[in-house]
Design a protein that fits this description.
275 residues, eight-stranded antiparallel beta sheet, seven-stranded antiparallel beta sheet
């Protein structure tokens, strides 16, 4: 991504909220021996959410969500009762695009949630849906875990936040997750100079994404691990969620670059948990 576009994005988001994940203090979380940060286990990207919680899944026999009966939230978008405008999610954003559950666009030809967003030099808030993670508070939770299948169908967009945990609060919004940078995937915090932790990617294939957040019991700050196809692509530590009372899952193209561009992205098989 061009430095000019990154600066424009940082300005747009930073002006909206100082906790959007654009701080220069963010750093790689690995230790001198390459170990993951405290609270994130080595190999965590290979395992799925498994913490027993309070339910909230679409659990039709034989469905994807039947594999996650105790998850806090799960959807494979197959439930015919998921209808517009929110499709069973709590809130939505439509600004320069649209989204819908469509047959045949999901993984293996199933139903999936498709987002089309257009950046045109205007507002950076585009199209997204979000869901409060049931039965959880950031002040008492120790870990958040999000797994999802996704496919960039088409893109000329320089940046979009695809899937994040978001923590709304009176002063703004803290968001941490997976971002698309036109030809690679990384965390939603724009990379600092010399940061090469990313995954080169092109539109077309399906991927499985993971976003894990774990709290340091001593500092009460959070460590982030983002993985794609069971490969950890980046880690951050020392993250604050401020005074947030709830945690949310956000999918789509929630924040985008301002420069003109188009994004067509599809999600399927979304499962979230917490501890």
């Amino acid at each position: 991504m061009r430095a000019r576009a990154i600066l424009a994005l940082a300005f747009a988001l930073g002006a909206c909220n100082a906790l959007t994940g654009l701080s220069d203090d963010y750093r790689l979380a690995t230790g001198a021996d390459g170990s993951p940060p405290e609270g994130i286990e080595s190999g965590a990207a290979e395992a799925g959410p498994s913490v027993p919680t309070d339910g909230g899944s679409e659990a039709a026999p034989g469905s994807f969500c039947a594999q996650w009966p105790n998850s806090a939230f799960c959807t494979d978008f197959e439930d015919q009762g998921l209808t517009a405008p929110n499709f069973g999610w709590d809130e939505k954003e439509r600004n320069g695009g649209d989204f819908a559950i469509e047959p045949g666009v999901g993984k293996d030809g199933s139903r999936g949630m498709r987002f089309r967003a257009t950046a045109d030099g205007g507002a950076s808030l585009k199209v997204a849906i979000w869901k409060n993670v049931p039965g959880t508070s950031p002040s008492t939770s120790k870990r958040y875990d999000l797994r999802f299948d996704f496919r960039i169908a088409e893109s000329t967009m320089e940046y979009a936040a695809l899937a994040t945990f978001a923590f709304p609060q009176q002063a703004g919004l803290a968001t941490f997750g997976l971002g698309w940078y036109g030809d690679y995937l990384d965390t939603t915090s724009p990379p600092q100079p010399g940061d090469t932790n990313r995954l080169n990617a092109s539109p077309g294939p399906w991927h499985t994404g993971r976003v894990l957040l774990a709290k340091d019991a001593n500092t009460q700050l959070w460590a982030l691990e983002v993985a794609v196809d069971a490969k950890v692509i980046d880690q951050k530590s020392g993250l604050s969620v401020g005074s947030a009372a709830t945690a949310q899952i956000r999918l789509g193209a929630y924040f985008t670059s301002v420069k003109a561009g188009f994004l067509d992205v599809v999600f399927d098989n979304v499962v979230a948990d917490h501890e």
